[in-house]
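> forwarded from #structure-qc
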């Protein structure tokens, strides 16, 4: 039932989804600028990611919980998200030729920018739809005692998607595929679409869901939102603790994920004869190193945890403290080599961040049990809706990005030297707070999960 093949089948779609997201993350900004979008508006476009995560994933979770398709509850949404991703990624990649074909020359610039921006928003929404459903599928189809295994596989698949995305981005695709007569970004999007379609097809054709045949009642249009609000106010106490920890942890992760390559580039000292592209290359190398280390330790850490029978909460706490330690080390030792090493070693904590929280929530959602809520402290039996709970979990991941953006704006306005470094170091304080929250919470005898 839970062989390596079955684990691969359940999680490989996440690799394809991550590959598509890596293309957007690594090459999206240069492409938008090349179309004529200003730097300030390009930065505004990136709000699509957290906005999509904040809105889309809870809605997808609630709708899929009530889906009565003969193909299951989650797979239809994985396929829907994939179709939206492939369509939107082609709209972004081919915005210029589409605009040239549709409008007169005086309107080409405006039209190509409009197509690209619309495509970016649709791309983020599609990725969130597919990713949400793929994550919920793991909870639905894997028993509680194997949640730590399948989520370790999921973390590895995400790491593999990152590595492939960054590596392919390094290649001179125009020279490799000259007969297609396409630009580098267009070829990158073509490969990402193919990999996404292949991995999603493999998952959806090999994983079988339980089909709910009871008729779904006609619901008013607003019931989805009222259900989300109700569930937000009635999250089981143990899961609420995980969400609070995630909120603090992601206050630290977002600045690192967005500014680490710029931090590396900022430390590079060029000679008069060296081109500025070396800075970009060093930043990209740091991210690739980060992805490789994350992938390797995504395999190693679960094995060590199993052999030593370590509590998952201890692994999570150690990962948070280790990331804070690495960032604080740069206060005393500097230079490009040190910063690149720190960024790479952060992959160890990232491997834990992609594994432990999802495992803890997955165990809770896949195990029928008594639980208490903040509104109703009296224990009672209930069946948790895994889709909507994981959607709420994603809200606690996305909300810190908005708060982090405001904090970073203040830091950037105050600090002029090594600004990227200070933004990332200060964010490390939130990692320490998250670790302290773990220690405080899990000392409680009322906390039942590991």
């Amino acid at each position: 039932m839970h062989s390596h093949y079955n684990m691969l089948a359940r999680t490989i779609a996440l690799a394809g989804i991550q590959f598509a997201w890596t293309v957007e993350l690594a090459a999206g900004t240069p492409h938008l600028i090349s179309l004529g979008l200003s730097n300030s508006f390009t930065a505004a476009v990136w709000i699509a990611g957290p906005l999509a995560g904040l809105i889309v994933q809870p809605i997808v979770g609630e709708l899929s919980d009530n889906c009565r398709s003969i193909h299951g509850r989650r797979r239809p949404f994985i396929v829907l998200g994939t179709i939206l991703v492939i369509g939107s990624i082609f709209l972004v990649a081919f915005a210029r030729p589409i605009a040239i074909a549709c409008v007169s020359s005086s309107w080409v610039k405006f039209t190509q920018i409009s197509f690209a921006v619309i495509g970016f928003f649709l791309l983020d929404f599609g990725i969130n739809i597919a990713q949400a459903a793929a994550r919920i599928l793991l909870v639905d189809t894997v028993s509680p005692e194997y949640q730590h295994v399948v989520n370790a596989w999921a973390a590895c698949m995400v790491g593999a998607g990152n590595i492939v995305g960054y590596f392919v981005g390094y290649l001179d695709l125009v020279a490799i595929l000259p007969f297609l007569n396409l630009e580098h970004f267009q070829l990158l999007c073509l490969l990402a679409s193919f990999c996404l379609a292949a991995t999603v097809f493999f998952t959806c054709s090999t994983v079988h869901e339980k089909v709910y045949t009871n008729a779904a009642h006609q619901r008013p249009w607003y019931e989805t939102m009222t259900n989300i609000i109700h569930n937000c106010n009635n999250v089981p106490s143990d899961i609420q603790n995980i969400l609070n920890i995630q909120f603090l942890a992601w206050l630290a992760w977002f600045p690192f994920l967005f500014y680490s390559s710029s931090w590396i580039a900022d430390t590079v000292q060029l000679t008069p004869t060296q081109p500025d592209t070396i800075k970009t290359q060093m930043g990209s190398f740091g991210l690739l190193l980060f992805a490789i280390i994350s992938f390797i330790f995504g395999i190693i850490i679960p094995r060590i945890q199993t052999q030593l029978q370590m509590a998952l909460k201890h692994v999570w706490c150690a990962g948070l403290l280790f990331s804070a330690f690495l960032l604080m080390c740069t206060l005393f030792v500097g230079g490009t080599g040190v910063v690149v090493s720190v960024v790479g070693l952060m992959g160890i904590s990232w491997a834990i961040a992609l594994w432990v929280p999802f495992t803890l929530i997955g165990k809770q959602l896949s195990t029928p049990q008594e639980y208490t809520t903040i509104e109703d402290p009296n224990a009672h039996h209930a069946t948790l809706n895994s889709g909507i709970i994981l959607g709420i979990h994603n809200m606690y991941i996305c909300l810190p990005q908005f708060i982090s953006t405001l904090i970073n704006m203040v830091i950037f306005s105050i600090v002029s030297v090594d600004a990227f470094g200070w933004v990332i170091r200060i964010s490390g304080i939130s990692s320490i707070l998250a670790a302290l929250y773990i220690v405080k919470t899990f000392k409680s005898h009322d906390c039942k999960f590991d």
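QC bot note: The two ends are 24 Å apart (CA to CA). The first helix runs from residue 4 to 34.
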